[in-house]
Amino acid sequence: MRIVKTPAAMQRLARIWKQEGVPIGFVPTMGYLHEGHASLMRVARRRMGPAGKVVVSIFVNPTQFGPNEDLSRYPRDLPRDLRICRAEGVDAVFLPSDAVMYPGRESGTYSTYVVEERLSSGMEGGARPTHFRGVTTVVAKLFNSVLPDLAVFGAKDWQQAAVIRRMIADLNFPIRIEVAPTHREPDGLAMSSRNVYLDPEQRAQATVLSRALKECRRRVARRRIPAAQLRSEIGAMISACPAARLDYVEFF
Length: 252
Hints:
six-stranded parallel beta sheet; about 250 residues
């Protein structure tokens, strides 16, 4: 398994593979990998086949964090991440630094960002106004470095996947996007690197999210319910948990 640390080196490797006719599958991550990430790697491997290559990026992207968010304490464990990648048969790990991804950002000379203006405006974008500008920018930069034929994202970040699909369509990236199912713990909680923040009581309460989704499905399967009523009822269910802070509830 190769470790690649700069966009230029990653591009050189990807071009060699492309010249050989080798397809490239890509899984972008921020590290602190878990079984959910591993499942995305397995999807990429199946789609690429034994002759293809799978690249995983590990980069905690500073531009998608707000001023008071958890950038400095975001969980990191690179040795463990690399062991997981090796176990999944990953061909290359793209491991860039902030300095090579955003040259001049600390001095204020970095000034180019990618902005999707419609799908990113509500929900997570409403709660975190600068988040999706950082996501689209870093994903565009990662795509230009890895040059993938396929990129695999998780359905847990549904709005993110929709924004990325829109970006590649609008900007003509020659990449296919696959959104893989959310990987969950046995009790229903979606796997997330940030789950490590939860104390035992919060961890137990966090299952209210999956329980709320199941309750939505159950109610809608029985009869038609106005979205406003369902939003209010499910919002109340989540907010009843002392550790919960509800940002939004939306239906599509």
